[in-house]
Design goal:
InterPro entries: Aldolase_TIM, GTPase_Obg, rSAM, rSAM_sf. This is Radical SAM protein. GO terms for molecular function: 4 iron, 4 sulfur cluster binding; catalytic activity; metal ion binding. Pfam families: Radical_SAM. The structure is a single chain. By secondary structure, the protein is an alpha/beta fold. It has one domain: TIM Barrel. 33% of the residues lie in helices and 18% in strands. It contains ten helices and eleven strands. Bound molecules: iron/sulfur cluster. The site of iron/sulfur cluster (SF4) has 10 residues, from loops.
């Protein structure tokens, strides 16, 4: 198995060199939507998979073979399993520091109640923690955690980590139609995120084949309503709908800009009008995108919003 892959373009991390510090599929969860398939046996005891020196050597080797104009913005621990199951995660991060590249870890947060796991994650510059639900029954249904795990120990530990972390904290919530998308799920999630105050909360939908069949994204109306509910409590919320373009580098092309921004943030009609005015364009652009089904027009609390059309996976 390759320990290092990429660099791949990532909207969240720029050009990210992936580090696979866990062989597939060692995980504490067996999420319904996992792209790597089912976890045959969940596990929660961190152990050694690769020696940190081997990981560093693999990263250096890959960096040495990059084209001169290829840059790497982040070294990202994003294995086909849970990265904090690696007992040597802290040592690997410390050793990778000599490369002077930012370090990110994408974790499911299930082991964050362990002091050693929180300490290891604190060494990273950018950490993403999975929070699909704050309701224990729903969490069990979606994430199918190891039987020894308890959501009521994970949620306060996430808060405690956030309180002592100096880096960039992101949360990621996968939205599965009819499982965690109702108001009774979203309102308490919003309350928890409001308290947590991550630097950014990502709301994702399934865009690739899932471990279990039948996992679908909410429809665009519902996705917009969820976004607005969380956005009312938290400044920084973004959608992850499978588009990796950069919403924040205005190209000057109104069509491109509109599609890039609405893939991440549903835009209110007045914001769209402002964007069009900047490029001296008229509303026919929007009408055309709606007609071609590239942009969805949605009503929410008496206002009209626009969201880039996505194909909910069935
Ligand atoms: S936590 Fe990640 S790797 Fe583990 S089952 Fe869920 S999606 Fe898959």
């Amino acid at each position: 198995m390759n320990i290092v892959f990429g660099p791949v373009p990532s909207r969240r991390l720029g050009r990210s060199l992936g580090i696979n510090n866990i062989p597939p599929k060692h995980c504490s969860y067996s999420c319904l939507y996992c792209q790597v398939g089912k976890t045959s046996q969940t596990e929660i005891a961190p152990r050694v998979f690769f020696q940190p020196e081997k990981i560093v050597e693999a990263v250096k080797d890959r960096l040495s073979r990059l084209e001169p104009d290829e840059r790497v913005d982040y070294l990202t621990f994003v294995p086909d399993g849970e990265p904090t199951l690696d007992r040597n995660l802290a040592t690997s991060i410390k050793l990778l520091r000599e490369l002077n590249i930012n370090i990110a870890v994408i974790s499911n947060a299930s082991l964050i109640w362990r002091d050693d796991v929180r300490e290891a994650l604190k060494l990273a510059d950018w950490v993403s923690l999975k929070i699909d639900s704050v309701d224990a029954d729903c969490w069990r249904r979606i994430n199918r955690p190891d039987p020894a795990l308890r959501l009521q120990t994970i949620l306060p530990a996430i808060q405690s980590f956030a309180d002592g972390f100096d880096g960039f904290l992101a949360t990621e919530t996968m939205l599965l139609e009819a499982i965690n998308t109702a108001d009774e799920q979203i309102n308490p999630l919003g309350d928890y995120l409001e308290q947590l105050q991550p630097d950014k909360a990502y709301l994702a939908i399934p865009t690739r084949p899932t471990a279990e069949a039948g996992m679908a994204a909410p429809d665009a109306e519902r996705l917009n309503a969820i976004y607005q509910t969380i956005k009312a409590r938290l400044a920084n919320v973004e959608l992850l709908t499978g588009y990796e373009g950069n919403a924040f580098a205005a190209s000057g092309d109104p069509v491109e800009d509109l599609l890039a921004i609405t893939a991440v943030h549903p835009m209110r009609r007045d914001a769209v009008q402002t964007l069009l005015a900047k490029s001296q364009s008229d509303w026919s652009i929007v009408a055309n995108l709606v007609r071609k089904n590239q942009l969805r027009e949605l009503q929410y609390q008496g206002k009209t919003y626009y969201l880039r059309a996505y194909r909910p996976k069935k």
